[in-house]
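Notes on consecutive records. When two proteins share a document, each keeps its own sequence and its own token line. Never mix them. Below: protein one.
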Amino acid sequence: MNLLDVFSSHEVFALATAIPAGSESESVGRTVIALIAFSAVSVACAMLSLVVVARRWAFIGEGIGHSGFGGAGTAWMLMALVPAWDRAWLPLLFVALFSLGAGLGMGVLSRRGRISGDVAVGIFLVGTVAWGFVGQQIYVQTRGTEPAGFLTLFFGRPERITDAYALAAMSIAIAVTASLLLLKKEIIAYCVDPELAETTGVRVGFVHYLLITLLAVTTIVGLQVVGTLLITALLVLPGATGNLLSRKLPVVTAVAIASGLAGALGGQLIHDALPIVPLGPAFVLVMFVLFILAFIIAKARGLRG
């Protein structure tokens, strides 16, 4: 059952209800739930990509994603040493804790220029990745096999989207959108010039850590879709595409969201037509093509030098 079949089905309205396991309707339901989850992640990442591009935080998103590997490594060590703790949810818990902690740590180190953002990211990235590989090797040497979820961290497992994940993705999309809309003026001032914004009464510290936290949580959720190797694409390409086509914030925002949603839908269609193409990379490649098209259009219209 592919996406084209889903939209031609008469049972789409009942997809979220209980359906007999193994039925065709269940396959339709899984596809729709996955598409909803991808779309929610796309919207959250697209909204944050405006901040990421404006603040030049692309490396921070990558650092947060890779830091989760250190958390998984810690869980694998514990699972190797205490077999009773060998549970599928334990690495996920530690990935979330390490990613969030690393994001806040990067925010603290880079605040007020004590350490440049790139240096702060590099410190956490190399340390946590090295620690993660230590944990992975301890597990391999102890158990004689790779820990479950090892490759998933790098490449994602979008085909295993659950109802709970879809709900989490929608929740973070709502939280990101609401935060950016409610604090629109403060965030714009912060992105343009944090020091000037602070002198005018903007709560720069609050905005800084709020955005870092939203970026960390969104990255954690997005790892299931594309993994640590490609999560940066979701946080950069939509905003970069929008900035190529306009200088007006509403237009840039609309283009960014449209680019993210097109990636989700287009990636699913490509994967359905060519199952050999992984869903996550297909998702990213669609957005990359849209960026190239936007670049060509911008050049033709003389929007960018």
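Protein two starts on the next line and is unrelated to protein one.
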Amino acid sequence: MRAAASANLEHTRFVMNAPTPSLRLRIVRKLAEIILARLPTGRWLGKLPFFPEFIRERVMARRDHTGLHFGVYKSYAEAYAQIPPSRLAGWDHSESSELWIDQIDPVRPSTYPVFFWLSKLYGENARLLDLGGSIGLTYYGYRRYSKMPANATWTVIEVPKIAEQGRKIAARELATGLSFGSDLTQVGACDLLLSAGALQFMEQSVPGLLERLTEKPRYVLLNKLPMTSGPGFWTLQNYGPAVTPNQIYNENEFIAYFASAGYKLRDRWAVQDLDCLIPFYPERFVKEFTGYLFERCDN
């Protein structure tokens, strides 16, 4: 009887500790990511007949993940042309604007370097331009931990659908100083240009970003950017509601662009909660993203 009871107890423990179907699926998917996108086996598997197209169809079809990538392309246009006709393309969609309405103020480890520099640079009467700032995610996150400075403005530039959603939420949240627009060239001068995880989705960003402003800001604060030491390239990112081109920058060229415009690099930090894995291209794996603070040199 004791042996039977012991066996039943061990069986109960096994059942209680056994992976659930959803956990097993996550484990299988994580193993597939490693095999296809991080190990040399990925290159070999990419040469099998029909297999890359099989994986592409599944990566592009999923709606439950915000960071799935596929393909390596030379330009935004080349990547955009490969978006499946069955999927929405880009960011200007109602579905995209609703991604964050249940949590408008997310704060993650990678957010804190931005908060640190905002506490130093975003003061009374400051004019901040938040390029690709969604519905105001960084604004609301910062407001959770810091008193907003008097008479300061925070202008988000976004695609029309997301900007429209942002205005609705700002009215609901009584967001002082927060406004939205969709045309970067129509925005006035700013003291601080902020962009957190958005530049890489724009057809024209770096180079070309500073040339679209009415005047160069004193500071440029950037976060969550995918960088490589090799040649820059484009890929496709399936972020759930839609699929969009995503640029991976050569870091030396990226920094050189700002240096040529009269900026010095004040700070750089690793964003360890983001990476980029592309099936069949393990050599393009981006282990972590990067953040920067640039300051304009006046002499």
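For the record: The first strand starts at residue 68 and ends at 73.
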